[in-house]
TrEMBL record:
Stored SUPFAM superfamilies: FKBP-like (SSF54534), GreA transcript cleavage protein, N-terminal domain (SSF46557)
Gene from which this protein is expressed: greA
Protein's recorded name: Transcription elongation factor GreA
Residue ranges constituting the Transcription elongation factor GreA/GreB N-terminal domain according to the UniProt record: 9-77
Keywords, ordered alphabetically: DNA-binding, Elongation factor, Protein biosynthesis, Transcription, Transcription regulation
Similarity comment text for this entry: Belongs to the GreA/GreB family.
Gene Ontology MF: a single term: RNA polymerase binding
Gene3D superfamilies the record matches: Transcription elongation factor, GreA/GreB, C-terminal domain, Transcription elongation factor, GreA/GreB, N-terminal domain
PROSITE patterns: GREAB_1, GREAB_2
Pfam families associated with the record: GreA_GreB, GreA_GreB_N
GO annotation terms (biological process): DNA-templated transcription elongation; regulation of DNA-templated transcription elongation
Domain Transcription elongation factor GreA/GreB C-terminal: 85-158
Protein purpose: Necessary for efficient RNA polymerase transcription elongation past template-encoded arresting sites. The arresting sites in DNA have the property of trapping a certain fraction of elongating RNA polymerases that pass through, resulting in locked ternary complexes. Cleavage of the nascent transcript by cleavage factors such as GreA or GreB allows the resumption of elongation from the new 3'terminus. GreA releases sequences of 2 to 3 nucleotides.
Length: 160
């Protein structure tokens, strides 16, 4: 058994994950069962590629079902429709500049389930995420990385 921490997600992402879970546990399971039954009808299971492929797909689907169930059980739904983006918190995009580097990178602070095109995701529970929460534009924060302590400037904060 593994422990899953809280995951902060938007209402739209929560709804999408609930819909995905419903699809997998209804239609998905029926389709996989039908594929396994069809492959079984082909004969010898020891050398039946269709059967093994269907069983593999079933295993992957059930793993995703368990992942979604755990994620939704520990989800904290946040709404930032009426809130400002004056300090870093989950659900926002943060532009960062590392010390001694002129490049600015944008990062979404939240769950990988909410990834956005062109923006890397940083978990709020990661060392960088923990250091960023509560910071404001212009603040410098430090966090411990495998290569040592890194220092980043919060250049800007915006809604996703």
């Amino acid at each position: 058994m593994f422990f899953m921490t809280e995951t902060t997600i938007s209402q739209a992402t929560y709804d999408a994950l609930v819909a995905e879970l419903h699809e997998l546990t209804t239609t998905g399971r029926i389709e996989i069962a039908n594929a396994i039954e069809s492959a079984r009808a082909l004969g010898d299971l020891s050398e039946n590629g269709d059967y093994h492929a269907a069983k593999d797909a079933q295993g992957k689907m059930e793993a995703r079902v368990r992942q979604l169930q755990a994620l939704l059980e520990n989800a904290v739904v946040v709404s930032d429709e009426n809130s400002s983006a004056d300090s870093v918190r989950p659900g926002l995009i943060v532009a960062l500049r590392y010390e001694d580097d002129d490049d600015i990178g944008e990062y979404f602070l939240g769950s990988i389930e909410e990834r956005r095109s062109g923006v890397e995701v940083v978990s709020p529970t990661s060392p960088l995420g923990q250091a960023l929460v509560g910071a404001k534009s212009g603040d410098w924060v430090e966090y411990r990385a495998p290569g040592g302590v890194l220092k980043v400037e919060v250049v800007s904060i915006r809604r996703a």
